Every structure is written in C-alpha cells, then in structure tokens.
UniProtKB/TrEMBL annotation:
<dbReference type="Pfam" id="PF02709">
    <property type="entry name" value="Glyco_transf_7C"/>
</dbReference>
<feature type="domain" description="Glycosyltransferase 2-like">
    <location>
        <begin position="506"/>
        <end position="610"/>
    </location>
</feature>
<dbReference type="GO" id="GO:0016758">
    <property type="term" value="F:hexosyltransferase activity"/>
</dbReference>
<dbReference type="InterPro" id="IPR027791">
    <property type="entry name" value="Galactosyl_T_C"/>
</dbReference>
<dbReference type="InterPro" id="IPR001173">
    <property type="entry name" value="Glyco_trans_2-like"/>
</dbReference>
<feature type="domain" description="Glycosyltransferase 2-like">
    <location>
        <begin position="45"/>
        <end position="171"/>
    </location>
</feature>
<feature type="coiled-coil region">
    <location>
        <begin position="368"/>
        <end position="395"/>
    </location>
</feature>
<keyword id="KW-0175">Coiled coil</keyword>
<keyword id="KW-0808">Transferase</keyword>
<protein>
    <submittedName>
        <fullName>Glycosyl transferase GT2 family</fullName>
    </submittedName>
</protein>
<dbReference type="InterPro" id="IPR029044">
    <property type="entry name" value="Nucleotide-diphossugar_trans"/>
</dbReference>
<feature type="domain" description="Galactosyltransferase C-terminal">
    <location>
        <begin position="615"/>
        <end position="668"/>
    </location>
</feature>
<dbReference type="Pfam" id="PF00535">
    <property type="entry name" value="Glycos_transf_2"/>
</dbReference>
C-alpha cells in the first residue's frame, strides 16, 4: 500500500531535487524526514480501527467533530478491517463530508485492531497521535486538554482516566492513586504503579516522532496488542503525565449488555490464545529492557483478567488443557514473586497451573463457572423481586391516599385492598430474605468446593480406620490393595487396619503396606469363631488413633483427594460428621485401568442413586463419635450398622455435611443379606428418643471402656 505519508515524502523529495538540495547521506535524509514530521498542518492525528460497528461509529466520529480544540486541527484516519456491515459506507460518508477525514479500506481482514492501527500510524501526518475505538467516544475537550499538557510539559505521553457508560448509569474507572491530581515522571521506573492502569491506548496522546523514531507498533492479528504497545511506549518514554482527576473518555459498556460484544471480548480459544501471545511479547519486552522486576506489578491484573475469561469460556476440556499448558510459563514466573492476588480462588488456580496440575485447575474453573452463572441468574431474580416490591409499595402509597378520601363510604372494601397490598409486600420481603440466606449458603458451598484444590491442607490431624477380615475372596484382597495404594498416593499419612478375625494378618499387612504411610498400624480383636463384627473392629481402631479426626473407610471404597481436603476443612469449621458423597455410588468395574494412574476419568459406569447409603467412607470428629456411643457392637455380619449410627447422630443434633459427589466403589460380588438381629437393632434405635438413646449408650460396655481410656 502506498500511504499518504509516503506520497508527501516523495513530493517533498522531488521539490528538493529540483532545487538540488535533497540530502545525499542517509543520516541527513533521516534528519530531513524528521523535519517533515514536525512540519504538519495538523496538531493531532486520530486513528480509528473499524470493524462491524455500524450502530456506534457515528457517535464516535461526531465526538471528534465537536472537539473544542477545533476540527481543523485534527486529522482523522479511519481504517476499515473488512467490515461486513455498513461501517465502511459510514466512514466514506464522513470522509466525503470532511476534508481532514481519511477512509482506508483493507483488502483482507486482520482479525484484531493491531493492523488497522499500524496502517493509521503509517498514514498519519499530525504532530501528535491519539486513538479512538469506534464504539467509544471523547468528551468535548479531550483533545484540547491532552494536547495542551503534552505541548506545555514537552513529554512523550499524556493520558487520563475514563468512565464506563452503562444503559442506566455512568461509573468512573478505578485509580490506585486516590485523590492525587496528577502523576508526572521522567522515566517509568519512578512510578511503576502506572503499569497497573488498564492499557487503554484510546486514553492517551503520544508524540508522533517518539512513536516513529522508536519503531513502536502494535502486534498484528491478536487481541491485547494495546498492552504490548503501551508497555513499549512506557519503557521508552522520556516524560509521562497521568491526569488522575480528569475523565476525558467514555468507554461503552452498553454494547456488552446487548450481547453485541466486540472481538476482544469474545472468550473463545482463539481469543484466549491470542492474549497469551500478546502477554509473551510483553514479557519479552520487559526482559529486553532488563525490567523483569516490573513483571508482577504489570501482570497481576492481566493474568487474573485472562483467568476470568478462561473460567467463563465454553472451550472444551482438550482446549482448556492446551490453553493452560501455553500460559503455564507466565504463571510460573508470576508465582516466583509471591504476589497476593485479588481473589482467593485465583491463588488456587495459579498454584495448580504452576504445578502442572491441569486436571485440578480445569475442575476448579468449572466449579467457579457454575457458581458465577447461578449467582448471575439469582441476582437477576433478586433485582426483579426488588422492582416488584418497589412498585407494590408505590401502589400501596397511592392507594392509602385514595382510601383515606373514600374511607367513610367504602370502609370494608378499603380494608380488604389494604390487606391484599400488605400481604403481597410481606411475601416479597420473605422472598428477598430467602434469597440472601440462599446466597450465603451458596457462597459457603463454593468455599468448601474450592478447598478441595487447596494444596496447603495437611492430613496430619486425620487417621483412616479400615475394618478388615482376611478372606479367600481374591476380589476383596485386590480391593484392599487398590484402596491402600490410592490413599497413599493422595498423601494420607496415618492408616490403621483394624481386624476382627480368628487369626491376625498383622505381619503380612505390615510387610506389604507399612512403607506406604508415615504411620501404619494393625490392631486385632480376636473373633473366637463369631461372625465378622465390623463395629467392634471400627471402635478398636478409633480408640487406637492419636488424631483429632478419623475417617472410617470400607475396604472397597475410595473418594477423590478433593473430597478429603473438603472434609478436613469442614471438620475444622466445626462440623462433626462429613460424608464425601451425597447418597450416590459409582462402581469401578475396570479396576486394572483405574489403578494405572488412579484417574477417575477412566470410570465409565453410571452413577447410582442410593438413598439409604450412609457408610462406605465417613469422616468424624473423634470425640463426637465416642460421645454418641461409637459403632453399635450389637450388630454383626453385614448391614445396618452405618444407618444406625447416623440415626443417633441425628438424635444428638450433630452438625453434618454431605459433599455433592459420588462414592466410588471397587466392584465385587457380595450377597447383601442382613441378619435378623441387625434388622431388630436398627428398628430399636429408630424408636428411641434422645433421652432413651443416651441412657442406652451409657450402658454399652465398649462406651464405658472408651470413656475410661479417654480419662
């Protein structure tokens, strides 16, 4: 493309050739070209990249026409990036109407604002450069204020704050500089806090000679290119002024609320990947200038902004992993500086990504996304309720005025209408109150979900109790092996296998599994030919444990590491019983595949609803477990003991929590037949009051013995 700027240069060269004064040496030629730059008829060149903005561009262009500096001092360069709507036609109309408006149409879409802005720079002739996005607009004195300061102070960059324009309000952008009137520095090193301001190129005025001489350009074809441009200019600038108390630009957010998002606000894989490319280019700039110490200051906001976009994106799991692997280096670098992030869940995400735990990071992002979507929906419902409430209150006020006038004629009618209004308003207040209660509950549930990915949670205060009797069933022995290796892998420190058996397997178990745990013990209650008494084995293990919390784990049940984390956090929050599943069970049939990496994604079986499921794995505050009578040793054989102790937990109002997940069950065949004794014991407890239950458990010999040991 032969640009307007080159046309002007060529014409000047021809004139010089005619008078035999055109410089021969290259250095003299560069000086001559610089003199052309400084001999412009325009004070400011305003560059506008355009793509599919037919509903907004006129407002942007009209804000330029109204500038108090005088339109004659402004050169307006509009660059159309192959719009498919009427944007190009509108540009041409303004170019035909105003001689200092130039309309340029690219032949191929570049996909982002970088290329159109660079074309605008190449074709500019003004002494200073400004930019404007075609869906935003200037205040009437924007150009005059910025031009006046950059000329008066003879600096390279001047910029100000802006306001967000919504449908029903205007909101000032945040500033870290409080009430300071302005910040003026010779070099960016004097105030790195300027890097924390959003890199909105459209809030700034630049010396054009400064941009040209330092070859500062926008990366092309990717979003976030303004970040790279602004950082490059800040690193090179000799003189920057920030007008902290001037608001000269209007940032249009109405477009977002109507679902008409610009290219840069679409959070798909291409856009997110493009942002990473821009971040890498910006990071390389810092390295090239030897300014890596600015990295956390500059990137704290940008990496969190990218992560917010990643969370709400509709990218697939494969795309999410690719994105996280690509941005991983930047987050690893950021974590080296130990900088506190604005949102707690961001810290969990950053840590998982830096440690290359991409599966955990993706799972965590999906939890947060679900919460955000639900919260947005409920916030809308709340706003709708508030509007109805306000409307009803206004109607009631009007009605009371009217009924006061006709009270003596229609007292009964007025009374009934008043009653109806007041009842409606009361109902709305109740709904709003329930909304806030439910919101508090959802926030707590999100907090607990996030704790599943908290790497700082330790397992020192937890002991797993596994009731066991060795059998000739190879499935059961295989399940024991898988269960112990799984819990070792996720970091469990303390394990007790508690036997109820005629013959102890202690030596065999210690030899095979003791190396998996920091503390591994086997305790044995001899059965003397009796049926397997799971309750007796559990109680023995609990009393042998040395930690504040215990988890009772069946030999064939496992749960995700995240749920262990959540359970510990809930116990520390004052819950006494935590179930790592909500009455749902998933069989692991292909155990060999699962065991290779303990990858829950390999489990293909259907989740089963089990309304009666109370056992499998249960986390307890140990003292609470003992105080409600422990497991009922009157049970023997299979079944019912888990349900019975939960009846007692309910009778004693123990604080309980069920994590919204499934219990994973290592499949094996078993005849699920309860003994008649167990059925009777279960029914007996169901019929008890709290007082009768307390009297009963205080007579149980194993409870008496346990309390003696604790004393």
């Amino acid at each position: 493309m032969i640009t307007l700027f080159l046309f002007r240069c060529v014409d000047s060269m021809k004139n010089q050739e005619k008078s035999n004064t055109y410089p021969i040496r290259t250095s003299d030629q560069m000086k001559y070209l610089k003199s052309i730059l400084n001999d412009s008829q325009f004070k400011i060149s305003i560059i506008i990249p355009v793509y599919n903005v037919e509903n907004y561009i006129k407002n942007a262009l009209d804000s330029i026409v109204r500038q108090t500096i005088g339109l004659k001092h402004l050169e307006v360069i509009m660059v159309n990036d192959c719009s498919t709507d009427k944007s190009g036609k509108i540009m041409d109309e303004y170019a035909n109407k105003y001689k200092n408006f130039t309309s340029i149409h690219l032949h191929e879409n570049s996909g982002a604002a970088g290329r159109p802005r660079n074309v605008g720079i190449e074709n500019s002739t003004g002494n200073y450069l400004m930019f404007l996005d075609p869906d935003d607009y200037y205040t009437e004195d924007a150009c005059e204020v910025l031009y006046g300061r950059i000329v008066a102070d003879n600096v390279d960059i001047v910029f100000s704050r802006y306001v967000y324009v919504f449908e029903n309000k205007i909101q000032r952008c945040h500033s870290i500089f409080g009430d300071l009137d302005e910040i003026k520095v010779k070099k960016i090193d004097e105030e790195p806090g300027l890097f924390t301001i959003p890199p909105s190129v459209w809030t700034k005025i630049f010396k054009r000679s400064f941009i040209v001489e330092n070859d500062i350009r926008f990366p092309e074809g990717i979003p976030a290119q303004d970040l790279t441009f602004v950082v490059h200019s800040f690193l090179e600038a000799n003189g920057i002024v920030y007008l902290n108390n001037r608001f000269l630009f209007n940032y249009n957010r109405i477009r977002d609320s109507k679902g008409d998002k610009g290219i840069s606000r679409n959070k798909n894989k291409k856009n997110l990947m493009g942002m990473i490319q821009a971040y890498h280019k910006t990071f390389d700039l810092l390295k090239n200038y030897g300014k890596e110490e600015f990295y956390p200051t500059l990137f704290k906001g940008h990496l969190q902004f990218w992560m917010d976009g990643f969370i709400i994106s509709n990218t697939s799991s494969i795309e999410k992993r690719e994105l996280l692997e690509t941005i991983g280096f930047l987050i690893e670098e950021f974590n080296k500086y130990d900088t506190e992030l604005n949102k707690r869940y961001m810290t969990l995400l950053f840590n998982n990504i830096a440690d290359k735990r991409y599966y955990d990071a993706i799972s965590l992002s999906e939890i947060i996304k679900n919460f955000i979507e639900t919260q947005n929906k409920l916030e809308k419902e709340k706003d709708d309720l508030q509007r109805i409430l306000d409307s009803s209150k206004n109607e009631l006020a009007e009605h009371l005025t009217f009924t006061g006038y006709i009270k003596y004629k229609s007292k009964n009618i007025a009374f009934r209408i008043n009653k109806r209004f007041k009842w409606n308003i009361k109902s709305l207040y109740i709904k709003l109150k329930n909304f806030f209660v439910n919101t508090k509950d959802r926030i707590f549930k999100l907090y607990i979900q996030l704790q599943g990915f908290n790497p700082s949670i330790r397992y020192d205060d937890l002991t797993l109790i596994l009731p066991y009797r060795k059998t000739n069933d190879p499935d059961r022995e295989e399940n024991l092996d898988i269960t112990l290796n799984f819990f070792s892998k996720i970091g469990i420190n303390n394990m007790i296998i508690s036997e109820h058996s005629d013959k102890s397997s202690k030596d065999y178990l210690i030899k095979k599994y003791a190396h998996l745990f920091n503390s591994f013990r086997v305790c044995t209650v001899f059965a003397n030919g009796q049926l397997f008494n799971k309750s007796r084995a559990i109680n023995k293990g609990v009393l042998e444990s040395l930690t504040q919390y215990v988890a009772i784990v069946d030999v064939d049940c496992i749960t995700k590491k995240e749920n262990v984390n959540r359970a510990i956090k809930l116990l520390k929050k004052g819950y006494k019983v935590v179930h790592p599943f909500d009455r749902k069970v998933t069989d692991i049939i292909d155990k060999k595949t699962f065991q290779k990496k303990f990858d829950f994604h390999t489990i293909k079986t259907t989740v089963q609803n089990r309304p009666w499921a109370d056992g499998g794995i249960v986390f307890w505050d140990k003292n609470s477990f003992i105080n409600i009578g422990m497991e009922n040793e009157n049970f023997s054989g299979w079944g019912g003991e888990d349900n019975e102790i939960m009846i007692r937990a309910d009778l004693f109002n123990l604080k309980q929590y069920r994590i919204d997940d499934t219990l994973y069950h290592l499949y094996h065949h078993r005849p699920q037949k309860r003994t008649q004794n167990n059925v009777e014991q279960l029914q007996k407890t169901r019929q008890m009051t709290k007082e009768l239950c307390l009297d009963e458990i205080n007579r149980w010999p194993w409870v008496i013995e346990a309390k003696k040991r604790l004393c």
